Amino acid sequence: LCGVMYKDEL
Amino acid sequence: MNIFRLLGDVSHLLAIIILLLKIWKTRSCAGISGKSQLLFALTYTTRYLDLVTNFVSVYNTFMKVVFLAASYATIWLIYMKFRATYDQNHDTFRIEFLLLPVTILSLVANHEFTLIEILWTWSIYLEAVAILPQLFMVSKTGEAESITSHYLFALGSYRGLYILNWIYRYYMESYYDLIAIFAGILQTVLYCDFFYLYITKVLRGQRLQLPA
What's the CA angle centered on B46, arms B121 and B154, to 5 degrees? Predict the structure, then answer.
């Protein structure tokens, strides 16, 4: 997985 | 969530709290770069726009709100409440030299050419270099108070721990984000010189003083 995805990191 | 990510977030939170407490308790922001803090506020603001567009978890929302609030509180302390103690003459790093390349890079190297994605990318690149005005200030004055050193150590450790988190996620979840990884490595590398001084001096009870 790489690229635009929903971001769960801060 | 893995242990590296959690430790990274704790370290980040600790850094922000140390800085706020230092300024509040000493009633002074001497030795602190207002420019770096402005860049961090810009970082959080542009990165956490998704706070209103999608929900990840209570933890995620809570931390984002805390980082935003603490960042603006810090700005307020430096530029309003304790403005008289702000060391403006030593905070002379030209931030346009950071903002220009960061803006160009985020327009060129992003995952998708949409406003929210470009702003997220911009925040990632900006965060990587946002500490430079602070490190420049320390090198200019040749020293840093212990508490400022602790702040810098905690703030530098956070992205270093995130790198371990990304390595873990790459193997365990097949997840990786090249933009975050590239910027995170750069960010951590910028602290290396400081880490060396912190470990060899501050942890041995000496002041962080740079060789003349």
Answer: 85
Nearest CA-CA partner of B99 in B72, B125, B135: B125
Look-up of token digits 């956490």: B48
Say how far apart CA A4 and CA B177 lie, in whole Å: 9
Q: How near does any CA of chain B get to the CA of A5, in Å?
A: 9
Which among B56, B165, B174 is the nearest to A6, CB-wise?
B56
Tell me the sheet residues that pair with B208: B144
Q: Give me the residues of A, 1-10, that contact B with CB < 8 A.
A: 1-4, 6-10
Determine the residue type at B134: Q
pLDDT digits (tens, 9 = 90+) for B33-63: 999 999 999 999 999 999 988 888 999 999 9
Distance CA B85, CA B31 (A): 9
What is the percent of chain B where pLDDT is above 90? 89
List, in sequence order, every residue forming a beta bridge with B40; answer none if it has no partner: none
